[in-house]
């Protein structure tokens, strides 16, 4: 009986160790997911906030530039058209380089997420 009791005791210890390992692994990965989730939400909120401020800056700058150009050439509608054409050129350039921009964003986010 001593051998069977020893095997049974070893088996119980192995089961307990396995349960503790599974529980600690679960807690670890839960904390890791929480960390990545909170960092992602924080990043998105910062991007949203800074993006809104940059958007307001861009709108006000575009309007003031259009008014200035309109005053210089003595035609406000033409000043606004010139600024609109400038934005169209920037949009076309962004469209042409969209893959490069996408590659840079994915690279930066993968460094952030998988760190």
Topology of this protein?
Layout: H1 2-72, H2 76-96, H3 98-113
Helix pairs in contact: 1-2
Structural description of this entry:
There is one protein chain. By secondary structure, the chain is mainly alpha-helical. The chain has one domain (2-113). It is 94% helix and 0% strand. The protein contains 3 helices and no strands. The protein has helices spanning 2-72, 76-96, 98-113. The longest helix has 71 residues, at 2-72. The model has no long low-confidence stretch (mean pLDDT 90).
Task: Name some characteristics of this structure.
115 residues, mainly alpha, 3 helices
Mean pLDDT: 90
Strand elements, count: 0
Count the domains: 1
Percent strand equals under 5%
Class by SSE composition:
mainly alpha
What's the alpha carbon Rg, rounded to whole Å? 30 Å
Number of helices: 3
Largest sheet: none
Q: Termini separation (Å)?
A: 53 Å
Shape: rod-shaped
> pLDDT below 50 for ≥5 consecutive residues: which ranges?
none
Share in helix: over 70%
Written as H for each helix and E for each strand, in order along the chain, the element string is HHH
């Amino acid at each position: 009986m001593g051998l069977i009791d020893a095997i049974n005791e070893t088996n119980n210890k192995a089961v307990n160790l396995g349960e503790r390992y599974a529980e600690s692994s679960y807690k670890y990965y839960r904390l890791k997911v929480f960390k990545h989730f909170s960092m992602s939400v924080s990043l998105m909120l910062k991007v949203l906030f800074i993006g809104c401020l940059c958007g307001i800056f861009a709108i006000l700058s575009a309007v003031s530039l259009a008014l200035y150009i309109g005053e210089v050439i003595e035609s406000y509608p033409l000043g606004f058209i010139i600024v609109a054409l400038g934005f169209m050129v920037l949009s076309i350039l962004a469209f042409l380089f969209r893959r490069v921009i996408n590659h840079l964003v994915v690279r930066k986010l993968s460094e952030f997420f998988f760190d």
